[in-house]
């Protein structure tokens, strides 16, 4: 069990927020295989304020999809609290996370995401607004810097976040400029953990139980966030709990993929074109590592309907 603010959570292994990935079908599958706590997809504050057409799809949930947290991204101080209140009212999360880690230029150019660790005064100002204006814990997901990693500076930023009232830190072990390449800087995550009195979760390269154990042992972190390691691999949560990775039979992978596609067909509030695009993307995740995976993945990209996708999978 771990405590974030006044919220007690039964697990310290969370499914991370991933835009375009961790939607309701994804989370329901992950929960079936041991994900005890999940994030909704990251949501842009501007999309909330302007009621973008896909907002309801992003925020879908069910009674089975609990407990969960929400994550907001943005850099406009004038709208962050208003957007956060709408998001909280719609989703009723255990806590709200502010994204200070997204490396995508579309976000950083708007002073959002990883830009906030480069402009910590803006980060603290947003946190002060959120912590003071919301009746639930606020957390931060952050990177170790924007350009090169300056351990002393990022520890100072982490302390500043805690001083602003955050209840936990989710720390990706790379800088913004590293993106998703290069090694994880376990030493700097450890330095942050030792510098603050709130829970610290480690993130980055957690693709299996071995990597999760490595994150715990090398940083002393309180928990881990599983992100890309869960794409097409919901079994990772069981593996981390058992501290043992196992090979999943091809037949089981296909069966779970079929169920995942069924949930997409059932829940996604999008056009058929968008829906089949998501089905193709999902199938590509699961088929990675199959014999002749390159050929199979090529065939997936030509599938034009849900029925056609099921027929294709039946023939593998």
Automatic annotation (TrEMBL):
Give the Gene Ontology MF terms in alphabetical order.
Answer: flavin adenine dinucleotide binding; tRNA binding; tRNA dihydrouridine synthase activity
Domain of life of the organism encoding this protein:
Bacteria
Give the keywords, sorted.
Flavoprotein, FMN, NADP, Nucleotide-binding, Oxidoreductase, RNA-binding, tRNA processing, tRNA-binding
Per the UniProt record, one Pfam family is Dus
Task: Locate the active site.
Answer: 102
- For this protein, the Enzyme Commission number is 1.3.1.-
Q: Needs which cofactor?
A: FMN
What SUPFAM superfamilies does the database record attribute to this sequence?
FMN-linked oxidoreductases
Q: Where is the DUS-like FMN-binding domain?
A: 15-309
- Stretches of the chain forming a coiled coil according to its record: none
What PROSITE patterns does this protein map onto? UPF0034
Its UniProt entry gives the catalysed reaction(s) as: a 5,6-dihydrouridine in tRNA + NAD(+) = a uridine in tRNA + NADH + H(+); a 5,6-dihydrouridine in tRNA + NADP(+) = a uridine in tRNA + NADPH + H(+)
- Locate the residues binding FMN: 17-19, 71, 141, 172, 227-228
Please give the function described in this protein's UniProt entry: Catalyzes the synthesis of 5,6-dihydrouridine (D), a modified base found in the D-loop of most tRNAs, via the reduction of the C5-C6 double bond in target uridines.
**Similarity comment text for this entry:** Belongs to the dus family.
Q: What is this protein called?
A: tRNA-dihydrouridine synthase
């Amino acid at each position: 069990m771990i405590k974030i603010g006044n919220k007690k959570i039964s697990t310290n292994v969370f499914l991370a927020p991933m835009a375009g990935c961790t939607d309701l079908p994804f989370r329901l599958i992950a929960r079936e295989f041991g994900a005890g706590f999940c994030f909704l997809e990251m949501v842009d504050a501007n999309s909330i304020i302007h009621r973008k057409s896909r907002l309801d799809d992003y925020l879908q949930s069910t009674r089975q999809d609990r407990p969960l947290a929400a994550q907001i991204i943005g850099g406009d101080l004038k709208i962050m609290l208003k957007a956060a209140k709408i998001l909280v009212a719609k989703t009723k999360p255990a806590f709200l996370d502010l994204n200070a880690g997204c490396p995508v230029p579309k976000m950083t150019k708007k002073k959002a995401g990883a830009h906030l660790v480069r402009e910590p005064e803006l980060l603290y100002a947003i946190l002060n607004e959120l912590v003071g204006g919301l009746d639930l814990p606020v957390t931060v997901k952050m990177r170790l810097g924007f350009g090169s990693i300056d351990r002393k500076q990022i520890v100072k930023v982490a302390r500043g976040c805690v001083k602003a009232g955050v209840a936990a830190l989710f720390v990706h072990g790379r800088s913004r400029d590293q993106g998703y390449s290069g090694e994880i800087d376990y030493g700097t995550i450890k330095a942050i953990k030792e510098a603050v009195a709130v829970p610290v979760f480690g993130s980055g390269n957690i693709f299996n139980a071995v990597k999760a154990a490595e994150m715990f042992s090398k940083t002393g972190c309180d928990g881990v966030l599983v992100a890309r390691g869960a794409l097409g691999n919901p079994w990772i949560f069981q593996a981390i709990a058992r501290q043992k990775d196992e090979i999943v039979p091809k037949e089981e992978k296909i069966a779970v993929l079929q169920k995942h596609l069924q949930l997409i067909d059932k829940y996604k509030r999008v056009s058929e074109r968008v829906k089949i695009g998501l089905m193709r993307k999902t199938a590509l995740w699961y088929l990675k590592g199959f014999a002749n995976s390159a050929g199979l993945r090529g065939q997936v990209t030509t599938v034009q309907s849900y029925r056609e996708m099921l027929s294709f999978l039946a023939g593998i």
